[in-house]
Amino acid sequence: MNESKLLDLLDQVCRGSVPPDQALERLRTLPFAEAGEVLADTHRVIRQGFPEAVYAAGKTLTQTSDALTALVGAHGCALATRVSIETAALLLQRFPTGSYDGVSRLYRIGQMGGSFRSATVAVVCAGTSDLPVAEEAAQTLEFAGARVSRFTDVGVAGLHRLMARLDDLRGASVVIAIAGMEGALPSVLGGLVAAPVIAVPTSVGYGANLGGISALLGMLNSCASGLTVVNIDNGFGAAVAALRVLNLMAKG
């Protein structure tokens, strides 16, 4: 159940078309739904504006499938992250209406009903090696109904590439900046645009990159004030952070 369905149910109770005891019965499954070993948090979309997503890495096929089944039953749509090609092939047999993207490793069933027509999120990545994280962010946003503008391969080693897109970037409501190596891109963007900048360090880089820790520390120590930093390779988390901003904007 999402917020609009809950409001509709309350309206039906108010109008007398649904008896309170029937409404209570429908609300009994609101906080969570039990499916096998999974307890799906079906109330999260009402609390936070975005439903629970299934983190598939480390889960069995049955656990992933049960979680998706519960979430689709509650919301009519579901999203799984970090899905392997092998798991995706089996999920497509169980959920033939779903779709899998091998770059982002997202498995999507349906789409949320949200729309942010007046707002655009710019997803900017330093290099094509960062695309898996960038696409995880971009496609999570699109699952939620947000508009996304992609800017690829505009790292600071060739700063003219970024500056050529500056007018477009300044038109975005939120900017997600994704970079590995030394992680300089978000700092540069943070000094050039007024919109909130959400920085995502990636594990891309040579040995001293330390699996993304160098980029993470660089972003945390940015001299561009107000930069928000999420965890290494966490494109999904950056997208949900951007959606929280858009939800506040939509409420005026």
Notable traits:
globular, alpha/beta, 2 domains, Rossmann fold, 4-stranded mixed β-sheet, 11 strands, about 250 residues, 5-stranded parallel β-sheet
Structural write-up:
By secondary structure, this protein is of the alpha/beta class. It has two domains: 31-109, no CATH class; 120-250, Rossmann fold, CATH 3.40.50. Helices cover 41% and strands 17% of the residues. It has eleven helices and eleven strands. A five-stranded parallel beta sheet has the order 8-7-9-10-11. Strands 3-4-6-5 form a four-stranded mixed beta sheet, with helices on both faces. α6 (131-143) packs parallel to α11 (235-250). The longest helix has 16 residues, at 235-250. It is globular and about 65 Å long. The two termini are 24 Å apart. The mean pLDDT is 89.
